[in-house]
Write a structure and sequence with these properties.
Pathway: Plant hormone metabolism; auxin biosynthesis. By secondary structure, the protein is of the alpha/beta class. It has helices spanning 13-24, 40-44, 76-89, 182-193, 211-220, 226-241, 256-263, 273-278, 360-382, and strands at 2-9, 29-32, 98-106, 111-118, 124-135, 142-143, 157-160, 174-178, 197-201, 208-209, 268-269, 283-285, 289-293, 296-299, 304-306, 309-312, 316-317, 351-353. Strands 1, 2, 3, 4, 5 and 18 form a six-stranded mixed β-sheet that branches. It has a five-stranded parallel β-sheet with strand order 7-16-8-9-12, covered by helices on one side. A three-stranded antiparallel β-sheet has the order 13-14-15, with no helix packed on it.
Amino acid sequence: MEKVAVVIVGAGPSGLATSACLALNSIPYIILEKDDCSASLWRKNTYDRVNLHLAKEFCSLPHFPHPPTAPTFLSKKCFLEYIDKYVEKFNINPQYCRLVESAIYDEDEKKWRIEAKNTQEEEKIEVYESEFLVIATGENSEGFIPNVPGLDEFEGEIIHSKHYKMGSKYENKDVLVVGCGNSGMEIAYDLSNYGACPSIVIRSPVHIFSKELIHRGMTMLSYLPVHLVDALITLLAELDYGDLSKYGIRRPTKGPFYLKELTGRSAVIDVGTIKAIKNGKIKVVPAEVVRINKKTVIFKDNFEKEFDVIVFATGYKSIANSWLKDYMYCLNDTGMPKNSVPNHWKGEKGLYCAGLSRRGLFGVSMDAEAIAHDINKIRLCLGDG
């Protein structure tokens, strides 16, 4: 058994940020990562053309801003180079290929007992004991695909957006993209650029902005109230894009930043999708999928069409509850924080969560610094600092 002050589960941006903040407070920790690399979601499960939609100043990890020479909006390659430099700067050494199978709080010892499978050494079980446990496995642990009647009998290809790389293999194919968030919109655009015939399901109202406009809005939030910023950038977006309702796209009645705070749902950052929709390169289906019959997809308004491929850009779900046996100290039944923002990061019995506030990279730094500060304060009170 290995004993340490803090065990962090997950070596994505949240886990790395938390480890750096702990190190700066001289708090011993171990990171357990199920994959063979840091930031595995970014390295292995993002499509090739992806760029960060937020400006670099909102995507920095703690104590290491992006250099002035970096572009305002980072490419996947640039961001991963930044991650590698972050790991090197703070001398972060995750224990890779450690699949955490169980984490239980021992009431007698007042410690967390974590069991992890070492998938490199004949699946050896390793045991760790810690005063504090940080869940940093992220919001995007496992792709979610809705249970659509007939889906199992679909005669084409079904993939989740997590596994989508690029559209070249889908040239001349009819592809249905289900989900109109940032991933769905960008995948539809990528498909159209590679000669596919994409359709996208957009049944709910959605805010659409350029990267530059969202950047401007986030900057204004430091000086103006949310409702005023929402009104200003919504007006500017309407001037930019015109009336999109004739294309099957409706705008929510509430503002984008208000909705982000309320629901965690982000506005869509347009990378060229709207122009492709207006040009007819991408078809909008403003109705939900009701059922599937072989290659035919039937929609709620009785419209039906045959497709070769269905891409589900329908989000993710946290799987922390599958291994965190005493999850109720910090999480709800869906694997998300039971406490609302800004107290979402702290649970009971020394249990914390980082990067689960639905605020993306922007929220990671705040979570990591808050967790490290709280752990340091507790250790100082106990005489362990």
